[in-house]
Amino acid sequence: MVRSVMIARVHDGLPLAASMDEEEVPASVSTLGSVTDPMTSIEAGQFTFHVAVSDGVGYIGLCDRLYPKKLAFSLLSDLQKEFSTQFGGMVDSAARPYAFIKFDTVIQKTKRSYQDVRARQNLDRLQEELVDVTKIMTTSINDVLERGSKLENMSLLSSNLSAESRRYLRDTKKLNLMMLWRTYGAFIIIGAVLLVFIYVYIRFC
């Protein structure tokens, strides 16, 4: 699940807005200025910090380590778009911490929509990632054919594609099982209960 979210100015680490559960420790923003990758993930024990930087603003999400990275960055992207729309022109003029604390309501609402990984919209987001992987694989193969890469490069690419294919199949099976359980789980439970009652009735009545 998503534990907390913080938005901060990059060049000085000034917190602009945040939403944290009780007893949650906020992410350190003092080193945001040293972040060069627009999207970075840092594991810390059972948690992972996901950091997205855009237009001088850092968006930091603290999530459970097993929470899908795709969903974490999708959450931060949604917040970035909304925050930029509301406060994009005022970030540099902010002089005190949490100057845009009213944005907390947007963070809370967005967090709730991302908490359940098995929710339909989140499964759709994960499915999009699998589609993206397929497109990347297809593009890579076409690039190799067009450029006439050497045999050793083909071998390396083949190994990479094989690994991606195995991950794709594994993730697809998980998504399918989740969808089946969401669709038929209630019927399976009801059926199992009915079978138990029928067995007890036949056995003891």
From TrEMBL:
Domain V-SNARE coiled-coil homology, by residue range, is 122-182
- Keyword set, alphabetical order: Coiled coil, Endoplasmic reticulum, ER-Golgi transport, Golgi apparatus, Membrane, Protein transport, Transmembrane, Transmembrane helix, Transport
Give the residue spans that cross the bilayer: 179-202
Kindly give the CDD domains that the UniProt entry links to this protein: Longin, R-SNARE_SEC22
How is this protein situated with respect to the membrane?
A: Single-pass type IV membrane protein
GO cellular component terms, semicolon-separated: endoplasmic reticulum membrane; endoplasmic reticulum-Golgi intermediate compartment membrane; ER to Golgi transport vesicle membrane; Golgi membrane; SNARE complex
Name any one GO molecular function: SNAP receptor activity
Q: Where in the cell is it found?
A: Endoplasmic reticulum membrane; Endoplasmic reticulum-Golgi intermediate compartment membrane; Golgi apparatus membrane
Which segments of the protein form a coiled coil according to its record? Answer: none
Set out the biological process GO terms recorded for this chain's protein.
endoplasmic reticulum to Golgi vesicle-mediated transport; intracellular protein transport; retrograde vesicle-mediated transport, Golgi to endoplasmic reticulum; vesicle fusion with Golgi apparatus
Q: Which residue numbers delimit the Longin domain?
A: 1-107
Listed Pfam families = Longin, Synaptobrevin
Please give the InterPro entries that the UniProt record associates with this protein: Longin-like_dom_sf (IPR011012), Longin_dom (IPR010908), Sec22 (IPR044565), Synaptobrevin-like (IPR001388), V_SNARE_CC (IPR042855)
The family line of this record is:
Belongs to the synaptobrevin family.
Name recorded for this polypeptide: Protein transport protein SEC22
Tell me what organism the protein belongs to.
Paramicrosporidium saccamoebae
